[in-house]
């Protein structure tokens, strides 16, 4: 059986990491900083960053001030690119089974899976990192406002 929409933990980390880096496009950001923001282990994040680096989406810089940064402009990278680095090509089946068991004109989901899959693909394909970077900027601003009070 296949999944209608698959988002593994590694894919979620990759997407969130790339969005965070997109909010700091000129900075080299440490694994420690990203792991802290996302509340995850540095070891797990490092594995995800290796995949992103191998795919040419981020570059790593070694040393005491080392870390990661985007290779390209956040306006040029879509969420589908990041998704497919981890999950492979996105497929949106219109059936939960590899071969149909329902009649073609009758289905438990009445075409819902195909519609949802298309909507998911369209969203990932049409959303650039730059479109969603504000999700982390707000938290940083809230933290700064709270420290001033």
CATH architecture: Orthogonal Bundle
Q: How do the strands of the widest beta sheet line up side by side? A: 1-2
The overall pLDDT average reads: 85
β content, as a range? 5-15%
Helix share bin: 40-55%
Low-confidence blocks of residues: 138-149
Q: What's the order of the H and E elements?
A: HHHEEHHHH
Shape: elongated
> How would you sum up the major sheet?
2 strands, antiparallel
Rg over CA atoms, rounded to whole Å, is 18 Å
Task: Give a description of the structure.
The protein has 149 residues and is mainly alpha-helical. It has a single domain (9-135), classed as Winged helix-like DNA-binding domain superfamily/Winged helix DNA-binding domain (Arc Repressor Mutant, subunit A). Helices cover 52% and strands 5% of the residues. It contains 7 helices and 2 strands. The protein has a two-stranded antiparallel ribbon with strand order 1-2. Helix 1 crosses helix 3 (42-54), helix 1 runs antiparallel to helix 4 and helix 4 (79-87) packs across helix 5. It is elongated and about 60 Å long. The model is unreliable at 138-149 (pLDDT under 50).
């Amino acid at each position: 059986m296949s999944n209608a929409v698959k988002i593994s933990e590694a894919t979620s980390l990759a997407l969130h990491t790339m969005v965070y880096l997109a909010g700091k496009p000129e900075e080299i950001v440490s694994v420690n900083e990203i792991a802290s923001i996302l509340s995850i282990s540095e070891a797990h994040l490092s594995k995800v960053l290796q995949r992103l680096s191998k795919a040419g989406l981020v570059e790593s810089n070694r040393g005491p001030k080392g870390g990661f940064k985007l290779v390209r402009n956040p306006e040029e990278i879509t969420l589908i690119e990041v998704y497919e680095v981890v999950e492979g090509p996105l497929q949106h089946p219109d059936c939960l089974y590899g071969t149909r068991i329902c009649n073609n004109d009758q289905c438990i989901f009445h075409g819902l899976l195909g519609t949802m899959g298309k909507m998911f693909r369209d969203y990932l394909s049409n959303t650039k990192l730059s479109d969603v970077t504000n999700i982390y900027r707000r938290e940083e601003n809230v933290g700064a406002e709270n420290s001033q009070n």
